[in-house]
Design goal:
Elements: H1 9-34, H2 48-57, H3 63-74
Helix pairs in contact: 2-3
């Protein structure tokens, strides 16, 4: 009935590959959007000096505050 005697054919293989690619793409996009940033290494955290540099670059602290923190940390 309706060609059911022809077997699975190529559509079965194509369907399986399609779903694997679709789910893999969705997992990749989700992890890219909500996961770690590209530059973050697993288990690595910023040093205090890196935090101070980032905050200074973002304008959160003044140059005087940055230099004071830097001098304190480099002692």
């Amino acid at each position: 009935m309706w060609g059911a005697n022809e077997g699975m054919g190529w559509w079965m293989l194509f369907g399986g590959v399609f779903w694997v690619l679709l789910i893999g793409t969705l997992v990749y996009l989700f992890s890219s959007a909500f996961g770690r940033g590209a530059g973050d290494a697993p288990g690595r955290s910023e040093t205090p000096l890196e935090v101070a540099k980032r905050r200074f670059a973002a304008g959160e602290i003044s140059q005087e505050e940055y230099e004071r923190i830097r001098e304190t940390l480099l002692r």
